[in-house]
Design goal:
Keywords: Signal. With 80 residues, the chain is mostly helical. It has 4 helices and no strands.
């Protein structure tokens, strides 16, 4: 992030022309907000992956427990 801000300070005139006449501070505010938004999206994707992994492990645990536990086998086996 520091490199991006440093680059923005050095080339503020080019940024002002590209972005549409904004001043240096508006350009930096825009860069910082984009950086924060990207970090928040990455954090949300990571959290979603962890949640999906946890849900999947709970499902696996439930399936193996119900399939191999003696109580469920007693109810499934018609000979008992």
């Amino acid at each position: 992030m520091f490199i991006i801000l440093h680059f923005a300070f050095l080339t503020s005139k080019i940024f002002m022309r590209l972005i549409g006449g904004e001043g240096r501070s508006e350009c930096l505010i825009r860069l910082i907000t984009h950086e924060k938004r990207d970090l928040a999206r990455a954090r949300d994707r990571k959290r979603e992956k962890e949640n999906n992994r946890a849900i999947h492990s709970i499902r696996l645990d439930y399936n193996t427990r119900s399939r191999y536990s003696p109580a469920s086998a007693r109810y499934r086996d018609p000979s008992h």
